Amino acid sequence: MAQTLGELREVVSQKQDAARMAERLQAALTERRVESGVVQSMAVLRAERVMVGQILAEIDKLKAREAALAEALAEAQGRLAKEEHRLSLLTDKAKVARRGEAEARQALRDAAMPPRRR
After folding, report:
1. What 8-state DSSP symbol labels residue 113?
2. CA-to-CA distance for 33 and 53, rounded, in angstroms?
3. What burial class does residue 52 get, using C-beta atoms within 10 Å of its C-beta: 0-12 exposed, 13-18 middle, 19+ buried?
4. Is residue 8 within 8 Å of 70, Cβ to Cβ?
5. Based on CB atoms within 10 Å of each CB, which residue in 8, 37, 62, 111 is the most buried?
């Protein structure tokens, strides 16, 4: 269960990192679009177009990674829920077994005692 919790934390962390990076790139792209009011040379425009294409491709990759991590997160949460349920069942069974053992010990003690005289 501890391993599953560790995996869950790792997936959540990676998902948050991917989301933050995608947001930063989106903000950078938006900022570039706002700044581009000045007339520029064709070479600069081509370079910016290539850069914008790369940023958009990176954003797409990060969003796909975030979706994959969300799926992994759901899977890890499912495993954790199953493990918690299993642990709960085993704990309940152990309690019942201990109670039964205590009752059996008490019955043995009672049987070993001589009957009361009136």
Report:
1. S
2. 13
3. middle
4. no
5. 62
Q: Helices (H), strands (E): how many in the chain?
A: 2, 0
Q: Which runs of consecutive H residues, i.e. helices, occur in the chain?
A: 2-35, 42-112
Chain centroid to Cα 42, Å, comes to: 47
Buried b (16+ CB within 10 A) or exposed e, 68-81: ebeebbeebeeeee
Q: Three-state SS for 39?
A: coil
CB-side neighbour CA atoms (13 Å) of 4: 12
Query: What's the CA angle centered on 35, arms 34 and 40, to 5 degrees?
Result: 125
* Distance separating alpha carbons of residues 3 and 15, to the nearest angstrom: 18
| pLDDT score, position 6 | 77
Which H or E run includes 118?
A: none
DSSP 80: H
The model's pLDDT over 58-105, given as tens digits with 9 standing for 90+, comes to: 888 888 888 888 898 888 888 889 989 999 999 999 999 999 999 999
Helix or strand or coil: residue 117? coil
* pTM (global) more than 0.85: no
